[in-house]
Amino acid sequence: MHSPAPFYPIGTPGIAWTDAERLQWRTGQTRHRSYADDVMARIEQLRRGFDVREYGDVTYEGVRFPLLAVRSRDWDDARPVGLVTGGVHGYETSGVHGALEFLERYATQYVGRVNLLVVPCVSPWGYERIHRWNFDALDPNRSFREGSGCGEAEALLRLVQPLRSRVLVHIDLHETTDSDESEFRPAKAARDGEAFEPGHVPDGFYLVDDSENPQPAFQQAIIDAVARVTHIAPADERGEIIGSAVVAPGVIRYPVRELSLCAGITGARYTTTTEVYPDSPRASSEQCNAAQAAAVCAALDYAIPHG
Questions:
Q1: Cα–Cα distance, 29 to 161 (Å, whole number)
Q2: Which of 25, 40, 115, 284 is 20 to 30 A distant from 212 in Cα terms?
């Protein structure tokens, strides 16, 4: 039997956090970077070729964060929608910058072929603090359901709701980092009053398919494209990646809607969650961003003709 991890500095082992522990956690968070400078400024430059819309906002301790979506200027309701989301976990940097790189370098290739809707940074407070959670110590990527109380997730749900039947493909850009094991999973265990069981961080890129709607050829097309940019994560000695069976090289599956994950918000035919490993000695930050952009292009290139 595992005992609760004794080392996490907040809370009492085996007892879920109350508001007091959440406040203690929040007080310890430090702002490391600027959403306005890093993200909003780049989105502003995209207004020359795209429509930029504020689809909501979150305000924490008097600081307002506008939530921004970038849309195709030639939007045509007769076309399917390609949805790209990044920064659901604010600390997963290449998810944000990979989405922006796709918009800046590749999105014009899809003019007239698909309606693009790109949300580069779903969780700006988490982006600034390089954290998985939002201000309320909630994980946005377990909160995509009505009544979750997560403002970032609820705003994205409202944005997407009118388009759900028209979304053909949704690619959600994420990272798996060493800090998942050193900070975020221990923090989650402490928050929930559960035991922390150490896991293994895979070295390389992988995808999470939807176990209720598997699309192996679609996932393979993305893996093939990304393999030209960075390395694909191998299975561990149990044939798994982060505790899930590897169903194809670099591919695992989750029940995305059951888990209230971002990839399940549309019911699109083609969905995937990317996972880049930025801490690998074999991958630079530029490669990680490029891998995310390549994954988006490959997802669209496969889905549009197969739609």
A1: 33
A2: 115
Q: Are 129 and 79 in contact (CB under 8 A)?
A: no
Q: Is the dihedral of CA 241, 247, 252, 258 positive or negative?
A: negative
241 contacts 203 by C-beta, under 8 angstroms = no
Instruction: Please state the φ and ψ torsions of residue 85, each to the nearest 5 degrees.
Output: -125, 140
Q: Is residue 190 within a helix (H) or strand (E), and if so which, with residue range?
A: helix 185-192
**What class is the 33-306 domain?**
alpha beta
Tens digit of each residue's pLDDT (9 = 90 or more) over 92-142 = 999 999 999 999 999 999 999 999 999 999 999 999 999 999 999 999 999
Residues 6+ apart with CB under 8 A from 132: 89, 90, 91, 126, 139, 180, 184
Residue 126, φ and ψ in degrees, nearest 5? -65, -35
- Sheet bearing 270-276, strands edge to edge: 50-60, 63-72, 115-119, 81-86, 167-175, 270-276, 206-210, 251-254
State the pairing for strand pair 206-210/244-245.
unpaired
d(CA 259, CA 274): 16
Structural element, H or E, at residue 276? strand 270-276
pLDDT digits (tens, 9 = 90+) for 145-204: 999 999 999 999 999 999 999 999 999 999 999 999 999 999 999 999 999 999 999 999
Which amino acid is present at 169? V
Output the pTM of the full model. 0.96
| Segments of 113-222 assigned E as strands | 115-119, 167-175, 206-210
